[in-house]
Structure formats: structure tokens, C-alpha cells
Here is the input.
Amino acid sequence: MWDIDERLAWLSKQCCTQGTQVTVVEQAKEGEAQVQFVSSERLICLNSPDNKPLYFLDMRKLADGIILQLGASRTALHIVECKKTIKENSWKTVKEQWAGAVQTAFALCGVLGVPTPANTDVFLYSAYREDTLSAAQNTNPALLKMPVGVTTATQKPQALEWSQQQVKILERQFEHRKIQLDETGNGRFEIGDCH
Here is the structure.
């Protein structure tokens, strides 16, 4: 049987990097970004320059980066989507990109011979420069007040979901983490151990 390092050699060197520091890169002008992830554990990063998933998967969208974190006894999955601006009308697409990336990552686990992560070990990331979904990010102070008759139950679903730390895709709830990028599109995130 092939070990993981032999299996990693099967992957494109242009798309796959590994180490304790890896970078997810989005090259498209509308979301251009570089997000560095750091861990004390081994990370395998698959960047998707053309955003094309595996041809046999039904989901046809893919997030910018897939990171497998190989712990001593568990595998964690980190799915990263970079956007210049988080907007109401792009939220559905972001969720579809995450879903395609989760499916692709599970297939990658099979290729590499590593266990697929439990739902509690799957993390979704939004890396962005500007946030137009959060009322707190609005520069008009009058818009910071909740209008009469508007409650969290009547808020737009995209804004409500963005404000929470859980996002539902593929009929499952996953933890959602936000990474605020600097004005040039760079960011950094330190990943804790899988245990």
C-alpha cells in the first residue's frame, strides 16, 4: 500500500502545498487575496485556481482553498472562500462553493488514505476585505438601529446566517469563521491542534 507521501506525489504541484504554514490564494481580481494558515500540525493545502471540482461530483462550484489538518488521531478540514466584499447577493454562491469543496475534500481524503473528518472538525472560512452584510459595518449610524417591527426572525436570512457562527450546507451545520483581510487582501489565521 502507498503511504501518504507517495499519494501526495499524485497531486498537482501547482495546486497542492504542505507544511505547518500554507497559503490559500485567490487570483481573480474580484476577490484577490492571500491567506496564510499556520499550525503546529501538518497541513495539506489544495488551491483551486480554476474553481473546477472533480468531474464526477454533482456540485459544480468550489471554494478557493481546501486545507486538511492531520492531527495525531484526527483529521480536520478547513474550507476557505475569499471575497473582496461579502454581499447579500453572493452569500448563496459562497455556500455552494463551500459545499463543493467539502465534497471534493472528502474525495481527497480517500485518495490520501486519511480518515474523513467528523462534522465537528469541518470549519468554513470567509476571508474578506469588506462586509456589507453586518449592520455594524454600515457607516450610517441611523442604519445601526433595528427598525420598528424588525426582529431576528424578520431579518434577511443571509444577514442572520452571517451574524451567527454556524452555517448550514449539505444538510449539516458547520462552524463558520471570519477572517478580515487587510486593504491589499492579505490575512493570517492560526489553527489550533486537532487533538
Q: What stands out?
A: The mean pLDDT is 87. Residues 91-112 form the longest helix (22 residues). The CA atoms of residues 8 and 74 lie 18 Å apart.
